[in-house]
Amino acid sequence: MQLPFKEIPIKCLSLVLIFLLPFRLFAQKPTIDVDFNKEIAPMKPVWSWFGYDEPNYTYMKDGKKLLTQLAATSKNPVYVRTHSLLVTGDGIPDLKWGSTNAYTEDANGNPIYNFKIIDKIFDSYVSRGMKPLVQIGFMPEALSTHPQPYKHHWKPGDPYKDIITGWAYPPKDYNKWRTLVYEWAKHSIERYGKKEVESWYWEVWNEPNGDYWKGTQEEFFKLYDYAADGLKQALPTARIGGPNIAGTRGKTAQQWLNNFIEHCTNGINYATGKKGAPLEAILFHAKGSPKFVNGYVKMNMAAQLNDIYTGFKIAASYPNTKNLPIIIGESDPEGCAACGMATNPENAYRNGTAYSSYTAAVFARKYMLADLTKVNFLGAVSWAFEFENQPWFFGFRDLATNGVEKPVLNVFRMFGQMGNMRLAVQGNRMYELDDMLKSSVSGEQSDIGALATKSEKSIAIMTWNYHDDDKKSNSETLKLRVNNLPSTKAMMSIYLIDSKNSNSYEVWKAMGSPGKPTQAQINTLKKSAKLKCVQKKMVDITGGEISVPVELERQAVALIKLDW
Length: 564
What we know:
β7, α6 and β8 form a beta-alpha-beta unit. The relative contact order is 0.13. The model is unreliable at 1-26 (pLDDT under 50). The protein has helices at 10-27, 61-72, 116-126, 174-192, 194-198, 217-234, 251-266, 301-316, 353-373, 407-416, 433-439, 504-510, 519-528, and strands spanning 31-42, 49-52, 79-82, 103-105, 111-113, 131-136, 201-204, 240-245, 281-287, 291-293, 296-298, 325-332, 376-382, 400-401, 404-405, 421-427, 447-455, 458-466, 476-483, 489-497, 532-540, 546-552, 557-563. The protein has a 9-stranded mixed sheet, covered by helices on one side. The N and C termini lie far apart (66 Å). Helices cover 30% and strands 25% of the residues. One of its GO terms (biological process) is carbohydrate metabolic process.
């Protein structure tokens, strides 16, 4: 017998409501509300930092083209970090390999300095108004305590440990190591001028808590002290930091970062015998953890965000570091840029819009974490550049393939159009930061959120429809509402990255995925790769308010800009 509604037991009714709740939430039409008057903090260009393993790609054809494009994304100088600036070799690049031959020795063990290749690299940056984040590493063959084998021959699919050779070992002579850094810094001042070099950041090595360093923790601190001393002898006002650890959320990595800060604050300096070591910036890495499951890629932003949150909290916990600039030396959806999707199917997200939407959504949360911990967040290095003369859309973590930009690069072009002050955002479908830290975007509903900024006579709002599961889903129409605008009219521009817009990858697939595109096809790909404005018109603003519908596919990113 069916009971009247009023006679259904409360316990049963509660179960029904709990069961229906996720479906009701999912059915909510997404809305974003932005108030022009609700300021949060300045919009630091933390996104305008990039890096890569292979330094010799810098001055090659497609490398120079991409540097020009990256420099054009930002009104502020773009910083660039690269590995292997002191590695011995002929300057011919390979995957996860580069060399400059900056240091060799004669038959009597006397140093020979040759900065010609480093100059080609840094000239490429400085001539475009870019700044090096100078990595002091790795170990020249003549200085290595374990020089052989030295050059590796790694390829995608090989064990990652195969890249670790003689360049990863401590120096046999720390005084020669110090003098090498001194001569390099002195040469840089002579070539670029003191004021220019003062605007750079310097750091020692890469991921010393992992495979990249074959010495002990104490030996790394010694390496750092001698390098910093050589740098400061050449330029006392130079800025140096570290330690660029990997897996920051892990217990061992946290010990490394804490011990490094303690050493720089209170330890005995190996190079000078005095207390402490120079420390003008804190650096660490943050990586996500995608998986390939049931025929599609499932991203995991929580891993990356927890690396960042951990590093921020540690830096904030020390009086001497809580106000120092923080640079996330590598900040990416996963760890190996040169591991293509053929050998690592979990990396198949890289060519399409999942990489774009992930990038938009994760940078918004980086700003939130900086606000929460009140740290001096300066930059996050996207470890992505280009791979010269490699197969088209091979699935490397890069920003362009064979000179054609991928969709993700257009997110950085969007960032470059945003204002200098961040605004509060309210969204009924935007995941809370706590939820992102716990489980990323793994529920039924996607993360439809926004990052909003303003300038004196404009407002720019980046929106996205992101989900960890990189598979197709229905488009949704976002209702964007902006109020307290100080104008009655504005020019509205809407830029879009999705399967049909600002997307060279989908165009390439529609061509039949050619391994050797014709020139006509390349021209089409280049055109399709640009950031596309899908709507531009004058709009009325009534009572300081405007409502804009924005259709977003899953993994789409849009920038809505109002200028008056």
